[in-house]
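[audit] Reproducing an earlier prediction to check determinism. Same input, same settings, fresh worker. If the tokens differ from the archived copy the diff job will pick it up downstream; this log only records the rerun itself.
[audit] input (224 residues):
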Amino acid sequence: MTLTHQLIALAVLAYFLGSVPFGLLVGKLKGVDVREHGSRNIGATNVGRLLGMKFFYLVTLLDALKSLVPVVLASALVHRLPESERTALIHGLWLLTGIAAVLGHIFPVFLGFKGGKGVATGAGLVLGLFPYFTLPGVLTILLFILVVWVWRYISLGSITAAAAFPLLYLGIGLSLGWAVFGTQWPLLLAATLIALMVVLRHRGNIQRLRTGTERKFGQRESAS
């Protein structure tokens, strides 16, 4: 099996792994269907509001691992090739393993293609694609933490970090001499599309932020 075939197979597996609704499963184990309470989203933020912050952290970790694991496996395969032999196709397929997991989370086959917003799963993709996404990704995560710490809105932190990510990738890539506009163009395109997708998935949050009705980080909501 060639590297191309291995990466394609990993991407297919990553989609099904991404489709596992950990937020829903954790809620069910606690006797709560998160689709019927709060924002009705299966993501970590809604789970945390309904069940408590330790469950927010648990679901965030599980959702991140859905993309981190396949991307790390793909990274191990890709890094067997010398840098000079990594074509745009290889970069694109490497990236596809993570994108497939994110799409699985947002459009899960097990839940009628109605899933979460993809932030934690997107973070797993970013951290696993070393070093090209990892370096700007760490800065993005620090920015997310800063925004949430100052303003106490998970959604605002997610939107800000998502918008900053492609700019950070571009800036770091150019400063380090990466082939950002060469063989790595799929990475730049994906960074931009991921940012756009995350922002679009937060349209409702943006409206609530504008009206002052968005819930702050740590606020509990009754599941009764």
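[audit] rerun output stored. Observation attached for the diff report: The two ends are 52 Å apart (CA to CA).
[audit] end
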